[in-house]
Amino acid sequence: MTDRIYGVADTTFSRVNMGEIAVKTITKEDPEGKIIRYTVPGIKDLPVAAKKLIEEGCDGVITLGWVGKTQLDKYSYLAASIGLITVQLMTSTHVIDVTIHEDETEDEERLRDIAIDRAKKHSINLVKLVRDGRSALTGLAGKGLRQGYENAGQLD
Amino acid sequence: MTDRIYGVADTTFSRVNMGEIAVKTITKEDPEGKIIRYTVPGIKDLPVAAKKLIEEGCDGVITLGWVGKTQLDKYSYLAASIGLITVQLMTSTHVIDVTIHEDETEDEERLRDIAIDRAKKHSINLVKLVRDGRSALTGLAGKGLRQGYENAGQLD
Amino acid sequence: MTDRIYGVADTTFSRVNMGEIAVKTITKEDPEGKIIRYTVPGIKDLPVAAKKLIEEGCDGVITLGWVGKTQLDKYSYLAASIGLITVQLMTSTHVIDVTIHEDETEDEERLRDIAIDRAKKHSINLVKLVRDGRSALTGLAGKGLRQGYENAGQLD
Amino acid sequence: MTDRIYGVADTTFSRVNMGEIAVKTITKEDPEGKIIRYTVPGIKDLPVAAKKLIEEGCDGVITLGWVGKTQLDKYSYLAASIGLITVQLMTSTHVIDVTIHEDETEDEERLRDIAIDRAKKHSINLVKLVRDGRSALTGLAGKGLRQGYENAGQLD
Amino acid sequence: MTDRIYGVADTTFSRVNMGEIAVKTITKEDPEGKIIRYTVPGIKDLPVAAKKLIEEGCDGVITLGWVGKTQLDKYSYLAASIGLITVQLMTSTHVIDVTIHEDETEDEERLRDIAIDRAKKHSINLVKLVRDGRSALTGLAGKGLRQGYENAGQLD
């Protein structure tokens, strides 16, 4: 089997270098995997970056977006989210979407920690889905897992 | 006729193992049917999971999503909903969308019951549509059926 | 010329049997037309039902949706509306969308009357567009017609 | 060169006969152009009407929509707007979207004047783009032009 | 290698001639590049303009939109944003979206300065992506860059 190729798409708008975190985490998680990175200005540029990465051969992509505080930023988030889902449907390929919203917390240090945790955990999710397939996460189904925050846990 | 294949797509974000409930309900409702399950991190990953399940041969899919309490979660819900409808239009295949919103009730036990009821009832809906076709639910048309809550009932 | 085929897609969520009203109205309006009916659980299932009806040969479709009172129901309405427009663009076929919002009025009898009126009037609109073509409604252009309510009337 | 064909799509929901205004304005602006008109019930029917007009040979289309006052009307506006943009992308053809919102003003006479002005000005825009091409409006770029209202003017 | 072709799409609705600024900035940044400009009435016309520019051979496009103050303008922004992302996915080509919201500031002089700065910086971003490729901005990833405002800076 060919080694897996992972795409990492990040932005210059982001205030944390989540692309680097994703590259390191994927490398650690799947040392035989190859990684291609694509940096764009902001979240609305991420869908086409993901599509181009898939066209270059990536078996899965992680996008790392950062969203401002205003209502307009939220509409941009919605448009980008629709676009990222569309890419996946056009290519039948996973694009795991990591998004940090600048208003998740007032505390900048906490915000950085959220970004790092979310980027790491979703990088691992991507490797599991790409390398191990559709049952890789089934043991964790319904467990209330969270990225960037503590797990919410299972209700039943 | 070939036996039917059902797809079940669920998430690790969910706080109830609705995927398991769907598998059990479909198995009981259509014992000759085959089931393929796909677990992803969150709701925005469900559309591509549904598409891949259909590409693997599923005649219909049920997705089981869990949505947080913030406005951003609601935008994610909107993007995912648009994506799930798009999958159906691309493939002319039903993808029944079960969604639980964490703010439907403050009572966690009640929330779990809603999730179980909704997952069960929609699993049965999926079997009826896939196995019995477009008239299977016509006897119930306009009856104000609800999933997760008591039926609202018919006005006329 | 072949007789026309009309599609009627309705839901079990609806509290009024609008599908039946549509079938009766279309039959009366175009007695030579054939009708195919498709019943699904809720509004987010209507777009694929409409697409499948068109693939079965329908020259036009009417969908009859019922939407709850919460903001989440409204997001579902938005997603379904985008989906219904997408079906039309994929097939170049009219899908007339009848939607009743449960919060249009507090009065349940009034709500039922709105549903009946809207379903009837749009069924007639569908027949006119399918049977008589793009000029059939031009004599009424700009007249402020309403379905479910009294006509608003023309301003000029 | 073949004479140009313009599409005009309007609604019976509108309270001003903007379709007629568009037909007259286009005829005056490009007397050699041919016009095809398509009347539908409401704004959500406009995207497919525009697509069918383009399929009938139109080189460009103007749609004339009227939107009610409620939040639900605004979601319908959003869905229709996405649809109208999608038509353009599917066909690489301009569809100029004239929309009147019933809550732009309380004064019905003023509302009628807005509708007339907007329909006229955008009809001229359509002719310029279809007949004269991508540079036709460049002399007016950044000039703060408005339709239905006085021009806002240039800031620099 | 063939010289690059850049597309510039702007509007007559805008109150600043951002198209001209983009043309000048791209010319300065990549003197061997060719530029094609397309002017349309408003933001909802930008997606098809971008698509047509790409069909004429552009390797990348910058769109320069201006959005009014009302909630309806914001829905138009959302629809246009989804359309601009769709164009990129249909063509696998970058379309950098510069948008000025008239309510970003009450001060018209400040608003003009925001427009100029944003148009310039994103024109440079476009050249970097088109000419230098997916790694051109990676050195700036996570740096909290802003266009129209001061950079927010990196948190880690």
Number of strands of chain A: 4
User: Which chains share the greatest interface?
Assistant: A-B, 38 and 44 residues
Structural class, judged by helices and strands of chain A? alpha/beta
Which strand order spans the largest sheet of chain A, edge to edge or round the barrel?
2-1-3-4
Order of helices and strands of chain A: EHEHEHEH
Helix content of chain A: 40-55%
CATH class value of chain A:
Alpha Beta
Which second-level CATH architecture of chain A applies? 3-Layer(aba) Sandwich
Tally of alpha and pi helices of chain A: 4
In terms of DSSP E residues, the strand content of chain A is: 15-25%
GO molecular function (chains A, B, C, D, E): riboflavin synthase activity
Pathway (chains A, B, C, D, E): Cofactor biosynthesis; riboflavin biosynthesis; riboflavin from 2-hydroxy-3-oxobutyl phosphate and 5-amino-6-(D-ribitylamino)uracil: step 2/2
Keywords (chains A, B, C, D, E): Riboflavin biosynthesis, Transferase
Family (chains A, B, C, D, E): Belongs to the DMRL synthase family.
